[in-house]
Amino acid sequence: MNLDLRKPYLASWFSIPVLLLTGAGFNGRTVDIQLADTYYVVGNMNFAWLGSILLFGVGVGYWLMRRNLKRSNPTLTRLHLLLTIGPLFMIVLPLEKSSQILSDCFVGCAIALLLGQCLFLINCALLLIRSIIP
To answer: What is the model's pLDDT at position 1?
Structure first.
């Protein structure tokens, strides 16, 4: 897959309807999260909606960068999009029924999402520094 890095916001925005359709297709599935002594059960469509809001915000961020400033770092952009879109689909798609495997996968996906958003912030900071210092 050759990702067009001149317009990374299109990759983010194109993933929104696909993520929502995937979430609607597997609407009956829930994700069980246990934190300390509290047990949370979250519907699959809720993760699809939250993921689509995140992808929309990321797309707006890349669109504003492209519109007002220079091009972002291609390596950081690829890594960020991979670590954002990939874990969102892994959370929404149905996996094994074993709760231990599902919770381990959820934790790994959450860590990957956080790492991806850190890369987005680093990419924004580098872009701002490059625009201030010629």
So the answer is: 47
Q: Is 41 exposed, middle or buried (0-12, 13-18, 19+ CB in 10 A)?
A: exposed
Both structure tokens of 6:
């001149």
- Prediction pTM value: 0.79
Summarised one tens digit per residue, pLDDT across range 73-103 is 888 888 888 888 888 888 777 655 545 555 6
